[in-house]
Specification:
Length: about 80
């Protein structure tokens, strides 16, 4: 009965330790996501963020206007 029964008691603490690690990991992910969201909001409010957004919008507008029904690649048969 010696060591084999001791394994039963140790299993509970391993499960508890695993649960604590899982909760700590979830908390760390939540804090990381919150920090990333704050950085994104600060970037969007900054001059660099506004310039980047304007550039992306300009590129999207140019892309939409540059290809009005024309195929991108034209094949020539010789």
């Amino acid at each position: 009965m010696g060591l084999s029964c001791f394994a039963c008691f140790d299993g509970g603490s391993k499960e508890q330790r695993r649960e604590e690690e899982r909760l700590a990991s979830a908390e760390a992910r939540a804090k990381s996501a919150e920090a990333a969201q704050k950085r994104q909001e600060q970037f969007e409010k900054s001059a660099v963020g506004r310039a980047a957004r304007a550039q992306l919008q300009g590129m999207a507008k140019q892309s939409a206007n540059s290809n009005k029904g024309e195929p991108v690649l034209k094949w020539q048969m010789s």
